[in-house]
Specification:
12% of the residues lie in helices and 47% in strands. By secondary structure, it is mostly beta strands. Strands 2-1-3-4-9-8-5 form a seven-stranded antiparallel sheet. A three-stranded antiparallel sheet has the order 6-7-10, with no helix packed on it.
């Protein structure tokens, strides 16, 4: 998958690591209502989590400065992917298990509107990662 992204001109500055994950969309401060990314779980951690929030399977491509989210089109909710932008209502701080890959500083996706694309059978969103100061 990542080699395809390189050919499409969406290159990363470092070789990205690929993770299978479960994503809960929404805003953390709104108990996962609204828009954005509320939680990211490893597949193993999700099995032990008893959450009433809807989770979707996805893949993450993670580098030092970017996080790309790939969600299968059939799992995409129109609520979260309507219009040309994916809206992050608030900053999303990467969970500890993802911060281990890269620098040790806490990294986050800033709030904002991010263009998304449909590539093959996935919806793709590329987010910048900032370091918490």
């Amino acid at each position: 998958m990542s080699s395809y992204l390189y050919r499409r001109g969406m290159e990363f500055h470092t070789i990205p690591k690929l993770f299978a994950t479960h994503v809960v969309f929404g805003s953390p401060s709104k108990k996962c209502m609204g828009s954005g990314i509320c939680k990211l779980y490893t597949l193993h951690a999700q099995e032990r989590t008893h959450s009433s929030c809807t989770m979707v399977e996805a893949e993450l491509l993670l580098s030092e400065r970017h996080l790309a989210l790939l969600v299968p089109v059939q799992q995409v909710s129109a609520q979260h992917f309507e219009g040309p932008h994916f809206i992050m209502e608030e900053d999303f701080f990467l969970p500890t298990w993802l911060n281990k890959f890269g620098n040790a500083a806490a990294r986050y996706i800033p709030a904002g509107a991010y263009l998304f694309q449909r590539i093959n059978k996935n919806v793709y969103v590329n987010f910048p990662l900032l370091v918490q100061s």
